[in-house]
């Protein structure tokens, strides 16, 4: 079972992109990139702006520093449990054995690892508080959530899981469209030598028709420079689109992993904020990129 879980994460190493080691107390940023709590805390404090914000080390999205500190960042329980299971494995099986019933084994392994309450260590997180959007234990209800709308995680997780799936399908369609637009844009910036040669050709032709074309000469030169500037702007827009696509891919990947490997408690920890983020990203229009015109001049 542990081997199956290890295989499931082969393409997504459980390593922190800051320290390059295994995640210790993994925490999820609003952009759905995961880091060690200690690593992201140190990084955030060192790079904090006057507006109390910092950039995600991977996608560069601006993250607002939580008012109550980074301890308020949600834990990535899927990563935590995967690490625990992999650590506990004793023997390695053959490649054929790893591949057999892999997904069933992963689901069974994770499902058996219920999450304990951080405030009441001996209690399991079996309830969901709608008012506070948090997963809690029975003792939490009595001490902190009296009078709130409380449901069993088993009752609400299926509905939330389906909502995440629906939001993911819509967002992935948008992601594929935006990626196709980005791929069609040119990766090259116009060479300044081409610009100079084009201007020379324009001026040479203008000299032979000076009576009629003096004003047209300067107009054509202006158009050449304008096209050149547009190419530079297109390159900048393409970079922004790639960053947006990276952020979109991150959220979609996190949602897919949560649907596939998350327990009911995992689903409810992230459901509300994840659905909202996927909905926003699905509705965000893709930047329109014009196909840059070729810079040339053909004497008439």
How would you explain this protein's 3D organization?
GO terms for molecular function: zinc ion binding. Pfam families: zf-B_box, zf-C3HC4. InterPro entries: TRIM45/56/19-like (IPR047153), Znf_B-box (IPR000315), Znf_C3HC4_RING-type (IPR018957), Znf_RING (IPR001841), Znf_RING/FYVE/PHD (IPR013083), Znf_RING_CS (IPR017907). By secondary structure, this protein is mostly helical. The chain has three domains: 113 residues, 2-Layer Sandwich (Herpes Virus-1), CATH 3.30.40.10; 34 residues, CD2-Gal4, CATH 4.10.240; 147 residues. It contains ten helices and eight strands. Helix 1 packs across helix 3. The longest helix has 52 residues.
Give the SSE layout.
Blueprint: H1 2-8, E1 26-28, E2 34-36, H2 37-47, E3 53-55, E4 62-64, E5 74-75, H3 77-88, H4 95-99, H5 102-111, E6 127-129, E7 134-136, H6 138-144, E8 150-152, H7 153-184, H8 192-208, H9 210-261, H10 264-283
Helix pairs in contact: 1-3, 1-5, 7-9, 7-10, 8-9, 9-10
């Amino acid at each position: 079972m542990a081997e199956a879980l290890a295989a499931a994460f082969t393409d997504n190493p459980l390593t922190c992109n800051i320290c390059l080691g295994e995640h210790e107390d993994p925490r999820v940023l609003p952009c759905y990139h995961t880091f060690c709590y200690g690593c992201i805390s140190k990084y955030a404090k060192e790079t904090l702006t006057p507006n109390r914000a910092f950039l995600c080390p991977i996608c560069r999205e601006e993250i607002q520093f939580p008012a109550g500190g980074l301890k308020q960042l949600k834990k990535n329980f899927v990563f935590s449990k995967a690490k625990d299971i992999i650590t506990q494995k004793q023997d390695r099986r053959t490649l054929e054995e790893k591949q057999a019933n892999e997904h069933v084994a992963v689901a069974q392994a994770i499902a058996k690892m219920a999450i304990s309450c951080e405030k009441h260590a001996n209690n399991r997180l079996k309830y969901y508080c709608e008012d506070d959007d948090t997963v809690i234990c029975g003792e939490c209800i009595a001490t902190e959530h009296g009078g709130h709308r409380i449901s069993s995680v088993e009752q609400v997780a299926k509905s939330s899981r389906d909502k995440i799936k629906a939001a993911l399908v819509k967002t992935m369609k948008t992601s594929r469209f935006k990626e196709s637009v980005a791929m069609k844009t040119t990766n090259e910036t116009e060479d300044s030598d081409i610009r100079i040669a084009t201007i020379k050709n324009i001026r040479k032709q203008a000299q032979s028709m000076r009576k009629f074309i003096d004003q047209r000469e300067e107009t054509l030169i202006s158009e050449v420079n304008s096209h050149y500037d547009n190419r530079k702007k297109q390159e900048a827009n393409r970079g922004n689109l790639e960053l947006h696509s990276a952020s979109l891919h991150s959220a979609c990947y996190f949602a897919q992993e949560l649907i596939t490997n998350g327990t009911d408690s995992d689903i409810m920890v992230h459901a509300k904020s994840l659905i909202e983020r996927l909905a926003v990203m699905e509705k965000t229009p893709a930047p329109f990129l014009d196909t840059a015109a070729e810079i040339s001049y053909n004497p008439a």
